[in-house]
Amino acid sequence: GAVVSQHPSRVICKSGTSVKIECRSLDFQATTMFWYRQFPKKSLMLMATSNEGSKATYEQGVEKDKFLINHASLTLSTLTVTSAHPEDSSFYICSAALAGARIYEQFFGPGTRLTVL
Amino acid sequence: GIQVEQSPPDLILQEGANSTLRCNFSDSVNNLQWFHQNPWGQLINLFYIPSGTKQNGRLSATTVATERYSLLYISSSQTTDSGVYFCAVERGGYNKLIFGAGTRLAVHP
């Protein structure tokens, strides 16, 4: 149980285009999902917290107009990188929180490797 | 904000050896998770362990919340254990995981 999927796993795009990444919780409902960015050989950096039915909360330094997040249902959150540039190339990972009594555990998707040419 | 420090940063083992990875955190936490990131980038949940001790096969973990550290034990290591091990903590009310820098483990046959 607690499986999270991401699509696509890999995407290459031209500079100036927009890219949408989907994150789905397959076997549980997630009121909260998270988006992270990871640079090579570095740790995960939280970009934003996505709550179903409300606006995302962005971490300091993350441009909300650049990284659009939508959490339209309890099983789907999307991250759109708008007008992508080479510096946006990175590994993007989502997670979904499985919440219960005294438990709040995050499960991670397999990640999306974005390359902007 | 809360600081999470992992040690050692890099570890090389011969297959069959045992190891201990450490995670120190600077403030009280509600949640602590250990992950293994495989070579393809997938984070695999190892333990949800805000306190106490848990075991799962060759892996076990102990968190001493009052002293603000957690340990991950790997026994009889295998080449498939290679990858990066992350510790991440969550403070109450924020529901956000703060990651350590990770321990990069290489197990050689």
Based on DSSP secondary structure assignment, what is the total number of beta strands of chain A?
Answer: 11
Largest sheet of chain B: 6 strands, mixed
Secondary-structure class of chain B: mainly beta
Number of strands of chain B: 11
Kindly estimate the percentage of residues of chain A that lie in beta strands according to DSSP. over 45%
Strand content of chain B: over 45%
Describe the protein in words:
The complex is a heterodimer of chains A (117) and B (109). Chain A has 117 residues and is an all-beta fold. In chain A, 0% of the residues lie in helices and 57% in strands. Chain A contains no helices and eleven strands. In chain A, the strands form two sheets. In chain A, strands 2, 4, 5, 6, 9, 10 and 11 form a seven-stranded mixed beta sheet that branches. The radius of gyration of chain A is 14 Å and the shape is globular. Chain A starts with a strand and ends with a strand. Chain B is an all-beta fold and 109 residues long. Helix content of chain B is 0%, strand content 58%. Chain B contains no helices and eleven strands. In chain B, the strands form two sheets. In chain B, strands 2, 4, 5, 9, 10 and 11 form a six-stranded mixed beta sheet that branches. Chain B is globular, with a radius of gyration of 13 Å. The termini of chain B are far apart. The chains are: A mainly beta (117), B mainly beta (109). Chains A and B meet through strand 4, strand 5, strand 9 and strand 10 of A and strand 4, strand 5, strand 9 and strand 10 of B.
What are the key terms here?
heterodimer, A: mainly beta, 7-stranded mixed beta sheet, 4-stranded antiparallel beta sheet, 57% strand, B: 109 residues, mainly beta, 5-stranded antiparallel beta sheet, 11 strands, 0% helix
